[in-house]
Fold:
Amino acid sequence: MSLDTPILTEAARQVDICNACRYCEGYCSVFPAMFKERTFASGDITQLANLCHNCRGCYYACQYVEPHEFALNLPAALAEARQESWERFAWPRAAARVFHRSGVALAGALVVGIALLFWAAAALQPASGKGFYAVLSHTAMVAIFLPAFLLPLTAIGIGLTRYWAEVGGTRVTLAHLLEAGRSAASMRNLAGGQGQGCNFEDEDRFSNARRHAHQAVMWGFLLCFASTSSGTVLHYVFDMHAPYPLFSLPKLFGVPGGVLLTAGATGLIWLKLRADRGLGAPAVWGAEMIFVLLLGLTGFSGLALYAFTGTDAVPALLAIHLGAVLALFLSTPYSKMAHGFYRVAALIRDAQIKDRQTP
Structure:
């Protein structure tokens, strides 16, 4: 694909200037990857855009931002290119365009509509089972959530295949996966060039707050996923059904996971409200915010559901929690959630390029 869109063309212009300047070489993985090239095709810009973590340190250090005639704003240029790439790779593409441009309204409608659906399903069926299953049967949960989990994964898989083809990805080795995994787990690209943090929310302040908030969200989400997975194993393999006691794997994973997810999402919201919207992709700011709110609502409603187990509040809380979870799953290929998959793919591709260029 050639640089035939205004967003890709502008990103390539700015990358060319940065490649000539080279002042920001030690800031993050984007610049060493950039400086290895002399010319940039669309696949190169797409790779750099998805490798960028939007920490914004390069913008505040740059001598060519406005009012200079070059008018560089590399974080915004790469954010726009990154967003465009997600829409281009998404399947179906129309869904991505709708969610990215009207994320607040769409996600709000999803949460409310799905919550009402669960509420109605619970009201129309007789109570059976224990705990949550007295409100909504296990069979109904599986029938709803299994396709809601598998279909978004299929869409993400198609998108990643398209991405891999555009950036020129080759055969992945275990070494590539390990290198990308270490970078993703530590989020070292959010630590700034010297490890002192980035300038995401303030030009003059270096902070690791965004890195820590991202790590809390990531590990919180993984712990919640581990909680659900362990509950599935206990249910089907050991015939141990919910509700589970506090000192059980589902609760030992789920409670800390919910706390981390809620705290991390709250931190990201606070940082996002303080940051300059002009250094990102302003057109999708609302969609990005609703994604973080969905993450926070998922964690908080899960904790509330556990805290009020055995009370009359369970049906309403279960409807809200499952509605938030289902909305999060269904929107995954078309929301900011997709950035995790594409960023890991970009880190794997970056590891490949480094491996290829090592003597």
Observations:
- The mean pLDDT is 85.
